[in-house]
Structures are given as C-alpha cells and as structure tokens.
Amino acid sequence: MRLQLPLCLLAGTTLPALLHAAAPAPLGAFLESHCHECHDADVHKGDLDLTALAMDFNRPETFARWVKVFDRVQSGEMPPAKKARPSLKQMEGAQLWLKEQLLTADRTHLQNLARTGVRRLTRAEYENTVRDLFDMPGIALAGELPADGSAHGFDKNSDALDISHVNLAKYLEAADHTLDLAIATRPEPPTVQKRRISLANRGGFVAHIIMNGDGVLLKDKKPDPDFPPAGEQAHLDQGAHERMGSFTNGSSVGLFRHEDESVSPYFMEHVTIYPGLYRLRTSLWSFQWDKGVVLPAPGTGAARLSVVQLTGDGRGGQHPSYVLGYYDAPSMDSQVHELTTWLNHNEIIGFNPASLAPVAIYSRKGRAMAFTGPGIAVDWLEVEGPIHPQWPPAAHQVLFDNLPLTEWIPAEHEGKRAPVRKKIRQIGAGMNRPDADKGLWTVSSKDPLQDADRLLARFLPKAFRRPVEPEVRQEYLARVEARLKAGDSFESAMRYAYQAALCSPDFVYLLEPPGPLDDFATASRLSYFLWNSQPDDRLRELASKGQLRQPEVLRKEVERLIQSPRFERFIEDFTGQWLKLRSIAANDPDKKLYPEFSPYLQDCMVAETRSYFHELIRSNLDAGHLVKSDFAMLNQKLATHYGIPGVTGTQMRKVALPADSPRGGFLTQAAILKVTANGTTTSPVPRGAFVMARLLGQPPDPPPPNTPAVEPDVRGASTIREQLDKHRHETSCASCHARIDPPGFALEAFDVIGGFRSRYRSIGEGDNAPRGAIDPLIGISFKLGPAVDASGELPDGRKFQDIREFQSLLVTQKDLLLRNLAQQLAIYATGRDLAFSDRPALELIVQRTQAQGGGIRTLLHELVQSPLFQTR
Amino acid sequence: MLSATLMLDGGSLCADEAAPTFKHRVTGLFSPDREQDLRGVLEQLPGITLQSLDYAHAEAVFQYDPAVVFKGTKPEDIAKRFDEKIRAASSNTFGIQPLYLVPHDQLKSVEIAVVGLDCKACSLAAYETVAKIEGVTQATASFREGKVTALIDPARTNQAALEKALKKKQVSIPSTSKP
Domain spanning A193-387: which CATH class is it, in words? Predict the structure, then answer.
C-alpha cells in the first residue's frame, strides 16, 4: 500500500474508496496512536477529523490540510506536550512518509506549470524603470497609476497584479508624460537660475503667521529691529509690511510652530518650470526664545525639507508630496545643508521646523512677546537649476542619440505637421521665469527611416530588457513609417513608436522563459529584486555575453547591487511590505493619550527600521538580530523617545544599547509597535499574529466566524490581558491563543507609539503621569492606569517575565527566523508563493547560509544562487 | 532769465532755463525719515528731482521736464502719470495727489495716542488708515512716539472718525487722546 498509493496519485487514477481508507503505515499507526484521540469524528478538536480526512493529495483543500498536519507535527506542537510522546522512530517514519507523499503530489501538480506567472510591473517598479531608462531620477509617475494589489504578503505577484482598461489608459498617459519630459525642444538648456529666497519673502502665509506671533524675523541672531516681534498687538496690515519690504530685507525667519493642519510653510518664490535636477542649499539654526530675547537652544533642532506639488491655482496641495530629508539646526550656529534633487513642474520646497512641540501662538494674548520656548530659524534657501550636465539631456539621447536639433521652419516642411508642444503654466508666486521663446525646435533626420531603424534597434532592447527580434523592431518601424507618410514630423512619428513601446507588454510585463531563466531574465529578476528596477548597462552586458549566470559573476553582481544607492529601493519596498511599514500612517495616535507623537517621530520610526535592516545586510549579521541586538539605529528624536541619552542630530547612526535596555531587534522598534497597534490601545493578538506571520513564518489561522472583537478600555479600569483572559480560556479559542498571545504579551511593554511602559495610559482613572521625556511645552492630560504585565508562557512551556526574557527565548530560534526570512525574500524575489515542493530548495538555502555564519547578506547571495531564484 | 510760475493740475510750474518745477501733494510721508525714502525712490525715476519738501503739509516741489519725463502725456494727466510712476517705484508706499484746495490756516491739527508696535510698516498702515479718510490732508504715524497726527478739514471729518478707523484697523488707542 505504501508504494502503491503514490503510484496511484502519480497516475491520477485514485479511487474514492482508497482515498477514504485508513492512512497507510507508518502514518496510519502514528495517527491512530497519537492523533485520533482528539481529532476523530467524536471530538474533532480544532474542527479536524483525521479519521475522515481523505488521503487525496490532488485536491488542494485536503492537500493543504495535510500540509498543516505535517507542519504541526514537525514543529513539535503536535502531539501536545502533555500527551504521551511517540518514539523518535515512529515520529520520523510518519513524517518522512507524509513528506514524500506531499512532495510527490506537489511536484506532479506543478511539473507543467510556469511557477512565476507572467506579471506586470508594480507601479513602483514602473516608475523606477522609467527613471533609470531615461536618467530622469525624479519623474513622478507612480502616483498617477492605479494602486497594486497584494498576494502572499507582497505586491510583486501576478495574482495581485491585474490589469484593466484603467491601467492601460494610465500607461498611455505615463508614457506621454515621460516623452514630454525626455524630448528636448530647445537648442540649448533652460537658463540656470540661482535664487536665494526667504521663507517669508513676498509675504504670503509665513509672513501672515509671523505677523501674528507664530514666528519672528531675525537679524544677526537677534530680533529684526525693523520688524519687532508680534507683541500684545499684531502687526497691522500685511500688505503694508510687504510694501515696506519687511520680508525682503534679508532677515532670517524663526518659527515656533511646526507644520500642522493649519500651518504649512513653504518657499513660495521658486515654483519649478523646467523639470530637472536642482541644487538646494539652506542655512538652519535653532534658538531658545524668551519673550523677545534670543538665547542658545537646549539642543540641536531638526527641520524638514519637503517637495510640495502645487495644484489648481497654486493655493492647493500645500502639504508635502514627499520628504527630502531632515536636517540639523544647531544652536545659534547656522549650518548650511546642500542636496541635489529632481523637481517636477510646479513643485516647490516645503519647510517644517519638525522638532518643535505643537505650539500655536497665533493671535494669543501677548503673542511672541509672551512666549518662551524653542524656535528653528532658516536663514535662506538657495535654489539653483535646472542643472543639465549635457545638452540635449541624457533622456533625449536615449531616444534620438546624436541627431541634431534644428528649428522647424514651416516653409521647409510643406505638407508636414509640426510637432506639438504643450504649454507649461507656472502657477503660484514663483519669481523664477521661463526663458524667452526660442521658436519651435525639433530633432531632425536626413534619412528618417534609416535613423528610425537605428534608434529603435538601440532603444527597444534596453526598454524590453532583452534582445529584440528584427521582426519585432520592424513592427515599430512600420508604425514610424506610417506616421511619416501621414504627415507627421520625424519627432512625432518616433514619439508614436516610443509611446507604443512604453505601453507594450514587452515593457510593462516581466516576461520570463519557462524553466531555468536565461541570462537576460536572470538580469531582470536580479535587478527587480535588489533595485526594484530594470537591469543597468553592466547587467545587460554580462547577460549578452552569457556570463551573468556564472556563480562568481553573479556573486560579484549581487555585491555591486547591494553597494549601490539604488539598493535603498529594495530596503524601502521590502520592509514596507514584509514589516508593514507602508501602514505606518494608517492611524493617528490618540492626541490625549499620546500627545508627544508627531509626524517627525513617525518618519524617524520608519527610518530606524529601514536603517536597521540595511545594517543587518551591510554587516552580514545573523537572523538572531531580527529579534535581539545590542545596538539600534537611532537619531536624536528616537533616542529621546527610547530614553537613550547622548545622541544628537537628525542622522540615523549605530548606537550601542545600554545593557538593561529593552530595545534591540525589530520587535522593539517603534515602527513595528505602531503598525501593530490601533492608535489608541494595543492588543496582544494582532501583535502576536504579526510576530508569528512576519518573523516566525507561522501565520495563525483566521479567527472563527462571529468572533467578537475585544473593545479597548481607555478608561483604565481593566487591562487587555484581563479582557482577553475569558476569551482565551474558551476551549475553541485556547489552542490558537496559546500560540498567538505570548509574543503579544511580551510586547505589551510598549505602547502604540513604541514607548516603553510599566503602566497603561488612561484618559479616565489613574495617577498623574510624570512628564518623563515629553517636551515641556506639551500638555499632559492622560493618567497612569493599571500596571503592565509583559510576562507569558510559550506553547512549549518556557516562561518569560518581560520583553528581554522573551527576546532571549526567541533568539534561540535562529533557524526559524532565518528560514522565514529566506521564505519572505524568495516570495518577494520570485514573484510567487512557495509551494510545499519548494521546501527542500529553501532548506538548502538556509543550510548553506548557516554554514557560512548565517548572515543576512549571505542569505541574499544564496537565494540568488539557488534554483529557486533561477527558475521561473 | 525768464522765470514763471504756472498752476498745473493743482500743482505749480516754475520755468527757467533748466526744467520747470511743480508742486504736488505727496502721500506716504508719515514720518520725517520718509523724506530720505522719497529721495531714494526718486533716484529710480530719471529726470525728476525733489527741490523742496513741506513735510507738515505733505507738499513737495519737483523739478522735471514733462515733455521728456511724461512724453506724450496731456498736461492734465501728468499728475496721474507721476503718481503711477512713483507708486511703482516705491511698492505703493508713496503717491502723488492734487494739492488740497482748503487754505492751511483753515485746517485743524489732531493728535491721537496709539500704543503697540515699534514698526515702520505698522506706522505706514496706521497712516494709510487715516490718510485715506476724506478731509485729511496730511497725517503722520509713529508707534515709536506713540501717536498719529493729522491735518483735517473740520468741515469734512473729525477726530472721532479717525479714531474709529484706527480702532477698526486693530490699532490700540488709550482711553485719552489730545483733542
């Protein structure tokens, strides 16, 4: 029977009578001795009757149930510890038999299937690909494309990447926009304009709040004598001040209020006309304001520069589109920061004195002259650009190589349609001006069809990420020819073909051959894995030489990709999904319970987790560091939040943790603790489920239908543990919660914003709360309620008293942690879920990694070298 | 040497071998240091020079050649064109107006105490609040000195009207002001 059953399965001739027969030896004996007591028709604990579970591995439902049985037995969870233990021989025999059946069935099922489905690019991949293809590193496309779905934890799976007419319409728009920006339409680059501007220049919103006390004008680190701080009476008439030049006399702007629902400062005198690279320089410092006197600040402040997309008439879209960075503002000492960034049409630079407490002095009695507290000053912002190292720009040369740009004289093109130029409207109050109209310039060709063929032969393989057959190129060339015959200019005809290429499946989809990947598919899989973008010239060159799949070459390339700044895209994309960082802003913490929370803190949280993961890879640290570590990646804001002294400034850096610190590893990072909380209260259940699913690779089953949610009690009358207790002791819930709750109990030591706590905060009953590290300007109204109990017991009986002990227990499961990370990375890299029959390959990756010390960078290498990665 | 004085649009014209001179009322002279500001603004207006200034009555004598500075402008429109030019050059803080027809000795001086900020732009705002009231021929404002003054035509306005306008502008006025 043992030999016959698999043969039957392989032949696909299984009979129902056989399938429902008792399980064959040695599994049958094992089940009967150790499982049927609880999982038979009478008891069917956990809704599982093994006496009735068919040995039908061809049916997905029963196959999945047997996999679950296998996993529970293999993990040691079953049979339960309190029951009689099977002998080792009996256990191994049963497991081996079941494993063989499952592997055989799964391999049979999958043998004729392409494992990774044909999938389109995610919108992040699409944007990155266009950015890299055209060397336009900041063109904004993703926001205009429909949101991607998610399957098996990631958005890179064909199951999640459907396509509709909406996608297609958006691809057309995106391609059109890309070509608008890429094609040079003038004989020389736009004039580089360099302008030093004040945050309050030309009046506007910042001037308005300064006039009402939320800020001051400063000269030589003192109040501007020509513009005294707003006192008992506000300054009269903003227009009069603008006309008298109060805001254009070179004064620095000191703000006491950070960005909030009503305040969003930005530098209004630069509104980008020409997309491109711009050099930004700004001078920042901080101070302590004492009712009209400027004093040294208590520490280094932090200011945020962001990019704001103006919309409508220029008054809309005031809040940041994206953050450029946080910058140090040292006490009484102007520090100049410089960065080069891409700016799009009608984008401006936003400013936020991020490290300040939420203070609003606006129109309060006494205004600035009655206020004592910190301020952040910006002396100026200098904007220089657009910077074009070459002209025509690289993007244009990707499309037209070195064909000359000439002026379009209608008389010379009788019967031809001139290329169309879109009128660019600058909105807002920018002082930068467009260049004078130079006429209509366009790329010209003396032999259009020959040039078109040459340009397409150059462009298509780069865009499609692999060699392009002549007949495919011919199709595009035919489009060019048709457009030329229809009267289009050379540029328009080529543009038509390029737009078609950028919307074609060859560009939008990742196309891989069945079976082992060829060199080009390997290049794409590798670059979309580690750069979230297309292969670069080097990868394409190695692929075209047929060298990329050589193990040593591949190893060097993986190292090169990891060292590249583009690797940050992987860090952001992978952690955003694996650790749910994309959900960091899913809720705003209750302002009464967590008044110290701020967007700056939230951004620091995300930066910490990303930096930490990057550091694990950079230093090739082992998987134990996922849950326990003697260092953290911190800046001043987070260090203060964590109660760790001696960290100054905005930059993330490696900080050794004190011996008694409860921090270290992902579990204790504020970002993880926030994404697993609801903004008001914490619950061990979602946090426990997060740990099991994301770190241990043991996602719990969903709760039974009609299970009521536990209502949070913010009055401080009862703890979540007390509320859960009743629930946990119900027989139907106990087994799952015995696994889910312990990690969550340990994490009860942290509140919804990742602060360490020994007592719960309450907005009802409780004792007055000490201020601790909370800014003196922040009002505290919450109370301290019941004590936190972070103790628990793991399903295997091991107990812990607090988070540190829990971490110590968890870190002993390095294999589990490493295996899960390997699985998460494999799903992300291959764009498909892992099947049961992939387990041996995954296990080999884990073993090879462990044999080399277990480092996470080693894991990346081993994954890329594996058949799992190199096979579709 | 021929010297002549002609009335033009409320101003006066003096002609000699150099450019003729004209008398205009100037708005924006809310404090003595504004004379210096005015001279600075005029530097941006080639062909126009300030000959003399009667700060108390906000009247100034300018020298310019209308045929050059205001080429093609009708004589009756010259003051208006001058006003446009000086406003553009001064961010609308100075202006040119016709001379006030009421004799100086029939005007009444009022002084209103104000408190609050020590800020030149705020003084401009307070000045403009008062100066734009019909019947006010000249005004000054200084938060540093804590007062707003005005020369008014009693037949057309009064101190109460000025105080009301200032209060509406959020200017703090102590309970007692000199009548």
Answer: mainly beta
Low-confidence winner among A47-56, A88-97, A620-629, A704-713 (lowest mean pLDDT): A704-713
Across B117-124, average pLDDT: 91
Closest residue in A to B87 (Cα) is A243
Cα separation, A532 vs A612, in Å, equals 19
Cβ-defined contact of B125 to A236 (cutoff 8 Å): yes
With an 8 Å Cβ cutoff, are A233 and B126 in contact? Answer: no
Subunit contact B120:A237, Cβ cutoff 8 A: no
Domain parsing of chain A, residue ranges: 4-110, 121-188+402-422+441-511, 193-387, 513-564, 578-814, 815-870
Model confidence pLDDT, tens digit, residues A375-386: 999 999 999 999
DSSP-based three-state secondary structure for A722: helix
Neighboring chain A residues of B172 at a CB cutoff of 8 Å: 232-233
Query: CB neighbours of A115 closer than 8 A, spacing ≥ 6?
Result: A830, A832, A835, A871, A872
pLDDT in tens, A602-618: 999 999 999 999 999 99
Q: Which chain A residue shows the shortest CA-CA distance from B168?
A: A236
User: Do B125 and A237 lie within an 8 Å CB cutoff?
Assistant: yes
Measured distance CA(A613)–CA(A305) in Å, rounded: 25
Smallest CA–CA distance from A369 into chain B, residue: B117
* Per-residue confidence (pLDDT) for residue A755, from 0 to 100: 97
Q: Flag whether the ipTM exceeds 0.85.
A: yes
Closest alpha carbon to A501 in A460, A458, A450? A460
Q: What is the dihedral angle through the alpha carbons of A853, A859, A865, A870, rounded to the nearest 10 degrees?
A: 160
Residue of B nearest to A229 (CA): B117
Is B124 in contact with A240 (Cβ distance < 8 A)? yes
pLDDT at A641 over 50: yes
- CB-nearest partner of A240 from B121, B170, B172: B121
- Number of inter-chain CB pairs under 8 A, A vs B: 62
Note whether B122 contacts A232, CB cutoff 8 Å.
Answer: no
**Is the pLDDT at A326 greater than 60, yes or no?**
yes
Tell me the shortest Cα–Cα distance from B160 to chain A, in angstroms: 20
Report whether pLDDT(B79) > 60: yes
Average pLDDT over residues A591-605: 95
d(CA A211, nearest CA chain B) in Å: 10
Determine whether the interchain pair B121/A232 forms a contact, defined as Cβ–Cβ distance below 8 Å: no
* pLDDT at B150 exceeding the cut of 90: yes
pLDDT at B176: 59
3-class SS of residue B62: strand
pLDDT number for residue A47: 79
Are B117 and A233 inside 8 Å of each other by CB?
A: yes
Asked if residue B9 has pLDDT above 50, the reply is no
> What average pLDDT does this structure show over A92-114?
87
What pLDDT shows up at residue A428? 82
Beta strands in A3-46 (DSSP E): none
Q: In whole angstroms, give the CA distance from residue B173 to residue A79.
A: 88
Check residue A316 and give its pLDDT.
Answer: 54
| Alpha-carbon gap: A222 to the closest alpha carbon of chain B (Å) | 16
Q: Are A400 and A443 in contact (CB under 8 A)?
A: yes
Residue A67, SS3 per DSSP = helix
What are the structural domains, with CATH classification, of chain B?
Answer: 4-97 (3.30.70.100), 104-168 (3.30.70.100)
* Residue A665 backbone zone (phi > 0: left; psi -120 to 50: alpha; other: beta): left
- In sequence order, the β-bridge partners of residue B60 are B24, B53
Nearest to B126 among A228, A236, A246 (CB): A236
From chain B, which residues contact A within 8 Å (Cβ)?
A: 90-93, 115-122, 124-126, 128, 169-172
